[in-house]
């Protein structure tokens, strides 16, 4: 890399800091950028320069947006009565792929992780509870079926921290349900065998969850 021009070297070193990018890949990407038309490079540079100032959290669901409220929450065709709770925006993007879900979201921006000193107050759990309380109050008013809060789906990752976070949220939701007499449904994403998987290669926890979550056939 010492033989590279200084500006190209700096770009390659920056790219190498990105997740999953090694030295050789960083060099290839730097050369690719060098070959791009200048107009395209200026667009990339402009977007990078403004990414911090233009990107904000949606006031409703904490998704990333350039507006006060993201386009998911302003979409009247979606079912605003069902909220999926996810850890990160990347999880939201995965659920949006393939158009498989038509409700709305709440992004926690993390999970409870005591070993790394992350507690419930460090992520957006209180914001979720406040949102649900306000929605349940409005349930008593005249609303369309598309906006009346019916279900909270906990879509946190199936690791120790994700499970602990899901259980904590479930317990707090149950307290709210008990106080308000709400019939709000609380669900968790099903676990099991992926399509095309072989039983002999599945770990015992996957098999256990698959048996526990079996459906009528």
UniProtKB/TrEMBL annotation:
Keywords: DNA damage, DNA recombination, DNA repair, Metal-binding, Zinc, Zinc-finger. CDD domains: TOPRIM_recR (cd01025). Residues 81-194 form the Toprim domain. SMART domains: TOPRIM. InterPro entries: DNA_Rcmb_RecR, Rcmb_RecR, TOPRIM_dom, TOPRIM_RecR. PROSITE patterns: TOPRIM (PS50880). One of its GO terms (molecular function) is zinc ion binding. GO terms for biological process: DNA recombination; DNA repair. May play a role in DNA repair. It seems to be involved in an RecBC-independent recombinational process of DNA repair. It may act with RecF and RecO. NCBIfam families: recR. Belongs to the RecR family. This is Recombination protein RecR. It comes from Candidatus Roizmanbacteria bacterium RIFCSPLOWO2_01_FULL_37_16. The gene is recR.
């Amino acid at each position: 890399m010492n033989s590279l021009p200084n500006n190209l070297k700096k770009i390659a070193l920056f790219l190498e800091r990105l997740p999953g990018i090694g030295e050789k890949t960083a060099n290839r990407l730097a050369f690719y950028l060098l070959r791009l038309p200048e107009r395209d490079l200026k667009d990339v540079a402009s977007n990078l320069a403004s990414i911090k100032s233009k990107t904000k959290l949606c006031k409703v669901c904490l998704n990333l947006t350039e507006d006060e409220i993201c386009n998911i929450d302003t979409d009247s065709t979606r079912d605003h009565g069902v909220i999926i709770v996810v850890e990160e925006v990347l999880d939201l993007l995965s659920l949006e792929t393939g158009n498989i879900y038509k409700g709305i979201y709440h992004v926690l921006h993390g999970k409870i992780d005591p070993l790394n000193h992350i507690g419930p107050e460090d992520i957006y759990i209180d914001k979720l509870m406040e949102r649900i309380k306000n929605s349940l109050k409005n349930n008593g008013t005249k609303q369309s079926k598309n906006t009346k809060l019916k279900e909270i789906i906990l879509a946190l990752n199936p690791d120790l921290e994700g499970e602990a976070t899901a259980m904590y949220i479930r317990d707090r939701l149950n307290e709210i349900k008990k106080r308000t007499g709400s019939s709000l449904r609380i669900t968790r994403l099903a676990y099991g065998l992926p399509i095309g998987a072989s039983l002999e290669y599945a770990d015992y926890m996957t098999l256990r969850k698959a048996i526990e979550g079996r459906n009528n056939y």
